Give the backbone structure.
Amino acid sequence: STQQATTASEATSQLTTKMPEYVASTSMDRTLGVWDAANLGRALTLRGHSDAAASVCALSSPELVASGSWDRTVRVWTTKGGSCVSTLKGHTDEVNAVCALGCDGRLASGGDDGTVRVWDVVTPSGGGSSETTKKAPPPCVVATLDHGKHRVRCVAAVEDIVVSGAEDGVVRLWKKHAAEEPSSSSAGGYAVASTLAGPGTSSVTAVTTCGDRVVSCDLDGNSRVWDLGTGKLTSRFAGSVVNDLATFPHRPNLVATATEGRECHVFDVKSGAVVKSLYDQHRGAVTAVAVLPASGHLVTG
């Protein structure tokens, strides 16, 4: 089943979900919305960005989400009260994407400055009150991963691997090395483990990890599935431009897509079979998709 997370006045660019189930959405009006997943009523509005909020992700800590903005910052918010508990500064251009890393307290962000930055986010307990916020040490960048002059459009992560997609059509897998395995090409302990590139040079629009696979999509409407371990292409599909991807926690082979063609598809990355297709649920392009962990329902915007 599907539920829409947009309102008439809000343009949603990305969604994320958390437990207990709520949905967080970003908007061009500089705000984030936090919605009750049961009825999609707005529970909170998060304000603080000075330009469009472009991306949002759930963090491993309870009640925390992070957002990336065109104001060149990443902000960490508590949904218990709606306050901003950390503002991460370092990008020199618009931030397009954020994702949580498997390791506690870290997230990755990608931006138009051609970098992916890995942050060690130290957040206060107690819901982000002013007293606890003052006691928290500042967050810091632990790695800056360079895509050259190419704007980073999307990021994803699994365990110690960061996946990034840029406007040159290349998807890079960055792996964190142990301290005893230094590499001259590493940045903050990270090095390029694989460089994935399709035959064209169309900008990457979305990436995600799904079990032992990486899925990437581009502006030409190509969706590609790669082997996470070897970096080899395993399958390719053509269709509408995909704006966002989401995975199912309890069905690791399934990926959901949000497309320019007003469609959402769920497909199996191993077999390539389309499990479900949803048409005409939106009047315009579907820009975001997320999965509610408990029910497996899709949320689209």
About this structure: Residues 141 and 242 are 30 Å apart (CA to CA). The chain is about 0% helix and 55% strand.
